[in-house]
Amino acid sequence: MKVTGSIAMVTGGASGLGAGAARRLVAGGAEVVLVDLNEDAGRAMESELGSAVSFVRGDVSDTDSIAAAIDTALDERGGIGILVNAAGIAPAARVISRDGALFDLELFRKVISINLIGMFDVIRRVAAVMAQNPPGDDGEKGVIVNVASIAAFEGQIGQAAYSASKGGVVGMTLPIARDLASLGIRVVTIAPGIMDTPLLADAPDELKDALAGLQLFPRRLGTPDDFARLVEAIVTIPMLNGEVIRLDAGARMPPR
Ligand SMILES: NC(=O)c1ccc[n+]([C@@H]2O[C@H](COP(=O)([O-])OP(=O)(O)OC[C@H]3O[C@@H](n4cnc5c(N)ncnc54)[C@H](O)[C@@H]3O)[C@@H](O)[C@H]2O)c1
Questions:
Q1: pTM of the full structure
Q2: Are 49 and 115 in contact (CB under 8 A)?
Q3: Atom 30 in ligand 1: which residue has the minimum CA distance?
């Protein structure tokens, strides 16, 4: 699918990786609808990127809010051809903490509800919209890019809930691609390594240096634009489908 002239929805698009994808898609000639909880950051993206961008406040774990956000996107832009699912949270807790407290099940449910069930809800709703698009080259009607994490494969201490949610995203990639193939919709998941986003904003420089040392080459943290370039490649290369792509400079995470 061409980026120029397409309409994209980006969840989590007010910050970090989603914002990076939105910037690159707009630079490539797309219109972008950002769906995010963070109203201030979303409005700032609208001011920065101008009329090609609309912000809609939405919570991916609230199905009515997502249905309303998609309706707004359709009213304002007329369709959706690209979906980037970047909304997510990454709270850490041990199964049993040092003081003996058990992992809070409500926290576990919240992570699954946002990172996995919320993503699936957005996918099913947006796929129904994409199915109405006229077919393009190769009969293509839509491209869905999900964000997992290398924590799906090498979760660290404290990442039981986060890794479970991202492992779910990895696991559902192929069956969703199979389900949507007859509609001309591709599905690809990116599993980023350590990316320099607001998720790491409060980390001290020494920690960032230590994390950068985990990459084989290049030995630096990934950037939102590294992520955005892979999103652009996935959108434009029609043979990419049903796959999970690590974006981690060869890093393999140790236990801590
Ligand atoms: N930064 C990293 O190192 C890294 C590594 C691997 C995977 N990821 C994944 O990348 C994605 C983006 O993370 P980021 O680093 O850009 O973080 P970020 O915090 O900068 O951005 C995440 C955005 O998601 C939004 N969001 C959170 N919950 C939401 C909800 N319920 N509904 C709608 N929006 C919601 C936040 O408001 C925020 O704007 C996440 O899924 C994260 O798990 C990040």
A1: 0.98
A2: no
A3: 59
Atom index in ligand 1 nearest the CA of residue 151 equals 6
pLDDT digits (tens, 9 = 90+) for 78-136: 999 999 999 999 999 999 999 999 999 999 999 999 999 999 999 999 999 999 999 99
Q: What's the rounded Cα separation, in Å, for the pair 177 and 10? A: 19
Instruction: Let me know if domain 7-247 sits in CATH 3.40.50.720.
Output: yes
Structure tokens at 224: 């939102």
Distance between Cα 73 and ligand 1 center (Å): 21
Q: Where are the domains of the chain?
A: 7-247
User: Containing H/E element for 70?
Assistant: helix 63-77
Helix 119-130 vs helix 160-181: angle between axes, to the nearest 10 degrees? 20
Q: Which residue puts its alpha carbon closest to atom 1 of ligand 1? A: 195
Q: Whose CA is nearest to atom 14 of ligand 1?
A: 16
| Mutate which of 147, 154, 202, 245 for ligand 1 pocket (most atoms within 8 A of beta carbon) | 147
Residue at token pair 């219109």: 31
pLDDT for 210 equals 80
Instruction: Tell me how far apart the alpha carbons of residues 23 and 17 are, in angstroms, rounded to a whole number.
Output: 10
